[in-house]
Amino acid sequence: MNPAETPNHENSDNPFLTLNYEPALESLGDDYYDEVVAAEFPQHILRWRNDALLPCLGLDTQAVTDEDFITAFGKFQGRKPLLALRYHGYQFGEYNSKLGDGRGFLYGQVRATNGELYDFGTKGSGTTPYSRGGDGMLTLKGGVREILAAEALHCLGVRTSRCLTMIETGLPLWRGDEPSPTRSSVMVRMSSSHIRFGTFERLHFFRRPDLSKKLLDHVIEHYYRHLLGEKDKYALFYAELVKRVAKLVAQWMAAGFCHAVLNTDNMSITGESFDYGPYAFIPTYDPYFTAAYFDYYRRYCYSHQPSICKLNLEMLQEPLKAIIDPADLEAGLANFNEYYHATYRSLMLKKLGFEELSYSEADELLHLTIKFLQDSQIGYHEFFYEMARTFSPKWRDEPGLVLNTSNIVPASGTSPIFDDWCVLYHKILNYFDLDHLDTISRTLTNQNPQTALLRPLIESVWEPIFQADNWQPFYELIKKIQSGK
Ligand code: AMP
Ligand code: MG
Q1: Which of 472, 450, 453 is nearest to 463 (CA)?
Q2: Which residue's CA is minimally distant from atom 12 of ligand 1?
Q3: Is any ligand 1 atom within 6 A of the Cβ of residue 137?
Q4: I need a labelling partner for 242 at 20 to 30 A (CA). Which of 160, 280, 331, 392 fits?
Q5: Does ligand 1 come within 6 angstroms of the Cβ of 69?
Q6: Ligand 1 lined by 99 (C-beta under 6 Å)
Q7: Once rounded to an integer, what is the mean pLDDT over residues 405-412?
Q8: Measured between alpha carbons, how far is 50 from 39 in angstroms, rounded to an integer?
Q9: What is the per-residue pLDDT for 310?
Q10: pLDDT tens digit sequence for 154-212
Q11: Ligand 1 within 6 A of CB of 123
């Protein structure tokens, strides 16, 4: 990557400017957005290009230059209109009617090679009518952290937005939670949609069921297409959204991820995970682990995430009641718990090596695993990685051999819970044929990478950037994450 300032590039040659953008949201009319102009920055240094996403856009990695990224997503040349989307939301339980894209806009929408419509949404691209006195900017560290979260979650199988690019923009920013002045960046997120629960909440606030219905038709047409011909498509949409959100939060929980700010303006109507601010991966299994320092009442702590997502879905019923029978909404939401638990159970069993486990001991194994992780405060990710690293067919021979070559677990006979866990794991292994053990070993390896994006690791790649503008550790970490190691 060339960190030098780059000359203007011919727009007509820029593959990002000749993509086939679809005015899907724009065509809904200006009740849903404001046209804005991007900030002009003193500097443009390309810091990240996510080449893994280019083939999804039908682009040849080799054919896209660093200058193409900068011209399109740092200078925003040749693309109009740029739309700040309007939305409201419940923030920490309080309704906020002053929200909206305050430091970003919808750059454009493109159909990827998989046939799905994606948004390019900016973060840190300047003020808008919704900036509420903020500077409209994103710190460089904020950009670095969001890139890492999205890649890590994606590689753990979580449905998430990803970052297409990040450009350092050369402004000094003042923030209470970073040593200031701190560096600035603009980031472009590729997501399935930027329509939020809060987009509907705003239309309800202004008593515009007509606009809600138009938006819901748009959502179904683009993101729930298979429901288009259905007589009760609206009820089916909500029931499916409930399932998508339940699945997503189960994925976060199994991945040991704490989103930190589950306000309804950060909940996507497509059930995709996005917007990573003060998130954290849990170091150990602590139900009350809270990632945002300003979350004084632990509202969005790790173990509250399922109930908070359910509550957000319930609050979304208010604006949807104008379109969908309340009885249908209730019936849709009633599936949340069962769907969440089934998905979480299946994902956790996979982390324990089992693609399928129909034996009655499965629930007991999960229960003991969580109890052991919570009581021992052993590293959450480390434990599963150690299972993958040290797995041996010998574990079938006797319980005392389970995990006995790992030095992170208690020695046999020193922890009753761990011993019970070993007895049960050993027993379950004996339900399988010897030649199935390879499959278990492979599942353990695939589900449990060594690299866990814990805060100290993020800080360890940020530090060289901060101290010496050395980006190598950051790039190496992404490479490791992307290779599933
Ligand atoms: P977030 O906590 O990132 O989901 O942001 C909540 C709201 O605050 C959104 O409407 C953002 O656009 C807005 N916002 C956050 N940071 C800034 C900033 N530096 N300048 C302007 N608006 C901001
Ligand atoms: Mg947000």
Answers
A1: 472
A2: 102
A3: yes
A4: 280
A5: no
A6: yes
A7: 93
A8: 23
A9: 98
A10: 999 999 999 999 999 999 999 999 999 999 999 999 999 999 999 999 999 999 999 99
A11: no
Say which amino acid occupies 106.
L
| Whether pLDDT at 4 is above 80 | no
Please name the amino acid found at residue 462: W
> Whose CA is closest to atom 8 on ligand 1?
102
Predicted local confidence at residue 6, as pLDDT: 46
* Span from the CA of 276 to the centroid of ligand 2 (angstroms): 8
Give the global pTM. 0.96
Considering every ligand atom shown, identify the ligand nearest to the alpha carbon of residue 146 and give its number: 1
Q: Is 469 an active-site residue?
A: no
pLDDT at 91: 98
Q: Are 109 and 22 in contact (CB under 8 A)?
A: yes
Report pLDDT digits (tens) over 241-297.
999 999 999 999 999 999 999 999 999 999 999 999 999 999 999 999 999 999 999
| Shortest-distance Cα residue to atom 5 of ligand 1 | 102
Residue percentage of the chain with pLDDT more than 90: 95
413 a known binding residue? no
Domain boundaries, the chain: 11-194, 225-344, 352-447
135 lines ligand 1 (CB under 6 A): yes
* Residue 129 contacts residue 17 (beta carbons within 8 Å): no
Active-site pick, 60, 265, 328, 375: 265
Give the DSSP letter of residue 158.
Answer: -
Q: What is the DSSP letter of 114?
A: T
CA dist., res. 479 & res. 265, Å (int): 31
* Phi, psi of 477, rounded to the nearest 5 degrees: -65, -45
The Cα 140–Cα 150 span in angstroms is: 16
Is 60 marked as a binding-site residue? Answer: no
Q: Does the annotation flag 100 for ligand binding?
A: yes
Q: What share of the chain is helix, strand, coil (3-state, %, to 5)?
A: 45, 15, 40
Which residue in this structure is represented by tokens 């309800």?
204
135 is annotated as contributing to ligand binding: yes
Q: β-strands 94-96, 89-91: how paired?
A: antiparallel
- The tokens describing 217, both together, are 């038709």
